[in-house]
Amino acid sequence: RRLGRMQLGSLLKPGAIMFTWTRDIPKPWPRVSADEWQDPYDERIYEGELLVWSLRNEARRATRLASIAKASLIVLGALTATKAVFDDLAGPESAGVIIIYALFGVLIAAIAGLLAAFKWDERAAQLTVLASQVTSSLREIETEWETKVLRRSPEDPSRGDAIRRALARQDATLRDFELKAAELDVMVEKPVETPLAAESTEPSSGSNP
């Protein structure tokens, strides 16, 4: 079983690679088919994958904002350094030069203030670390399910207790990580339907439109 199979097809469309930095990560699709879906285990795993997806996208947006702000500061700082040249060309008392460079100063102060207030770099790092922790926990949960549940015979009387313990651990792990995500102002999307429900609503290939 593999975790979090992404919709790679959307990344392979013409021109998509060029704009990868400006785009969000594609939403993960359930990693198993409807025939293999094991409620409620796979539903919880998919919920965890959606949490990882939300965290990584938020980290990506925070990194993007921090990069844009830093690049803007560099460009504006370089433009400000040209003031002496414009003073020589237009005169130090030129109203246009004074207004333009005053605007540069205001923009630099505003962008620096945004960086200090929102701490996009720090937020991106926290979200990335949390996403990695969730991924590691999902891997541990999957290993526990394989070793303690799937390897037991359906006739084994202890299998029911093993399932309940594994699901309880899943619930506790997801709850803890969702609380941490909420502290970072990340809204976690909940799966609205399972693949079984989704397939049941799709028209068959031979049906008329």
Task: Describe this entry's structure for a reader.
The protein is rod-shaped. The model is unreliable at about 1-20 and about 195-209 (pLDDT under 50). With about 210 residues, the chain is mostly helical. Helix 1 (about 40-80) packs antiparallel against helix 3 and helix 1 (about 40-80) runs antiparallel to helix 4 (about 120-150). It contains six helices and no strands.
Topology, please?
Layout: H1 41-80, H2 83-90, H3 95-118, H4 120-150, H5 159-183, H6 195-201
Spell out the helices and strands N to C.
HHHHHH
Mean pLDDT, to the nearest integer, reads 80
Instruction: Describe the global form.
Output: rod-shaped
Strand content: under 5%
Number of strands: 0
Helix content bin: 55-70%
Q: Structural class per helix/strand content?
A: mainly alpha
Distance between the termini: 36 Å
Largest β sheet strand count, sense and barrel closure: none
The rounded Rg comes to: 26 Å
Total helical segments:
6
Low-confidence runs: 1-19, 194-209
Short summary:
The chain is mostly helical and 209 residues long. The longest helix is centred in the N-terminal third of the chain and has 40 residues, at 41-80.
Characteristics:
single chain; 209 residues; mainly alpha; rod-shaped; disordered N terminus
